[in-house]
User: Fold this.
Amino acid sequence: MIFKGRIWKFGDNIDTDAIIPARYLTTSNPRELALHCMEDADPNFVNRMKTGDIMMAGENFGCGSSREHAPIAIKAAGISCVIAKSFARIFYRNAFNMGLPIFESVELVDAIQDGEEITVDSSSGTITITNANKIFKINPIPPFMEKLIADGGLMKHIAGKRGKHETG
Amino acid sequence: MGNTITEKILMTHTNLKKISAGQLINARVDIALGNDVTAPIAINEFTKAGGKKIFNKNKVALVLDHFTPNKDINSAQQCKAVREFAAKQKITHFYEGGNVGIEHALLPEQGIVLPGDLVIGADSHTCTYGALGAFATGVGSTDLAAVMLTGELWFKVPQSIKFVIYGKLQKWVSGKDLILHIIGRIGVDGALYKAMEFTGETIGKLPMADRFSMANMAIEAGAKNGIFAPDAITKAYVKKRAKRDYQFYSSDADAAYSDIIEIDAGKIEPQVAFPHLPSNVKPISKAGKVKIDQSLIGSCTNGRIEDLRIAAQILRKHKAAPHVRLIVVPATPEIYKQALKEGLIEIFMNAGAIISPPSCGACLGGHMGILAEGERAVATTNRNFVGRMGHTKSEVYLAGPAVAAASAVLGRIASPEEL
Assistant:
């Protein structure tokens, strides 16, 4: 898959209360959650970003609560993928399970500034900065996770496997 | 090479004969937990995937504790959806209304989670059950849906960090202070993806309530789980509650650790985590004069009877400062009843406290104790992120029940020694 978009860069330890505050957790409707994405970190974020843009952050992105509303809000807001130096582990699971592509790279996050445009090719594991003509390598996603994403997330992956079991 | 307690518990839930850190495994789950915020998504995913019947009606626990008593129409709708699912699936461990307690205090108290179990919960503080010598970790709603369907889930076997804690605890220092100190030392991602194994002579004497507080906050250091090897103290807690078999595991002497950290607990004062990270920790003697508007004593971290006893010991002869809203939240109905029996509730009310029913509401800025712009709270909870308990320009200071009670009296962050 190829993602091309403007970078919205955030700092270290962006927590799930910043991504989607608990006061909005009385719904799990993706559209409603998207309206408040990153509200407590940048109140104008959803008005300024465009569909397909890429979110970038430092260490431990998504720390705190297990709320799946966080990757749902990011995905529904139109962010195509998230690149961080590291992810908090529950967010990491949730993102894959939701089908929100995420990538870890310390080097890349250090090298790229807010507002720059990049292209991510997840199949070849390369990231290109549009105006700098620089190429970075990222770790490929392991085969069984690729399958999970290709199936459309964890539940569809399981449903597919169960279907096969049941039909022998 | 031997195995850690975390590796052993994970291995016994697979068909594997050998296991090591870094390995990806598929494991059987003993108990899967959801609440009124996370279960609705899980139920939706379960249904969308064609789920008809959950894998085992005795192994799924649904606890409506976050926005309850229902704070508005949306939260009432969420609870209704979970209630109907629980009834349809005949789920044994369904809690709401007068039975409901804060999930991570309730499940151990009711003997639903036990030593040696593999527990997942769609709530990050599921790691609390590691205090019992269980492997317990927080996951998302979709993971919960997968477990409700299959009874299994994929895991990456974590590396472990061993904490060796020695020395005699100073007066007013509790498990909460130990874990705040540790998070202050290693940072909010200091144990990212890893298990935190708590050992040492101090731990061997530590009561269950303190162990629960410590395991509870493992996630605040980024850990996958926190764990204590079960011992006589665990046994005394579990034997009167368990209604099924359980297993005690412990780490081998030659188990591999990614790091070993020694801590002299005798040198630790009561701790306070300043805004806006649980790692922003200072000893109480260096807290300065921070005026507060609210003191919250409760939550899955510190809402147990032992915590209420400590607070009552301080509030017995004092009143909360007039400008402070003191909110006490007994974590479960059993704790509430016990506190009534011991006269603790009367002590709190005489001190000017508001007694809340068991609820997670105030801790996560849901309801029952929201902060306005510019307000500050000292709280025995586990997170002090921006906007956690209300307005983005409010502040949360994390501490144990002794500091929270003393602070309520003096109207500023304070040590019980100042009274």
Observations:
- Residues 38 and 100 of chain A are 16 Å apart (CA to CA).
- The two ends of chain A are 32 Å apart (CA to CA).
- The helical segments of chain A are 16-19, 30-34, 45-48, 69-77, 89-98, 106-111, 143-150, 154-166.
